[in-house]
Amino acid sequence: MKRFGMLVLPVACALVLLGGCDNAQKDENALLKQETDDLRKQLADRNGALESLERERLAAVARADAADRGAGTAPAGGGAQHESGFEGIAGVTATRFGNEVRVAIDGDVLFDSGRTSLKNDARRSLDRVASALREKYPGREIRVVGYTDTDPIKRSGFKSNYHLGFDRAFTVREYLVGKGLDGKKMALVSFGPDMPLDSKAKSRRVEVIVLGA
Known about the structure:
5 helices, elongated, alpha+beta, CATH 3.30.1330.60, six-stranded mixed sheet
């Protein structure tokens, strides 16, 4: 019996030690997981900041390029004329200025307030716009321009109206590319609140401008 008792004691000690080792391993694993999660969060935050800076840079470059080309004003060489082929599309008007055609799409048809994801009904309008662009102006250079109203950004999470306008233009461009238009021939511009129309609703818009039409 003594010999049995002497055997039990080492076994019990070993189990205690193993339990302690197991707990220490769990603590170490938890610490490593926490460190990994922290590093992932830091990386995500850094990537988010870099993406925001890149959007801001692209928006500034696009505005400068458009200003150089006179994209924000009616082109010289003729007054505005109605452009056929876009009749009956909800929220869409098409106007010719000289050798440019501007297809204006109401922002409220495309997006909810402060959002950049397309409404379901917007897809129907953009499908018809894409079809008309493919048929009437194949191979033409296109500029997609985002505009907003002049109300300051409050709750949408965008740094400025320029960023909102740019992301909305990008959304429209990507949809049109998905419908067969050549993305290499489609530039992006955001004028944000710089060119308001006679109402806030009309100011919120995306224009698809066909160059050399």
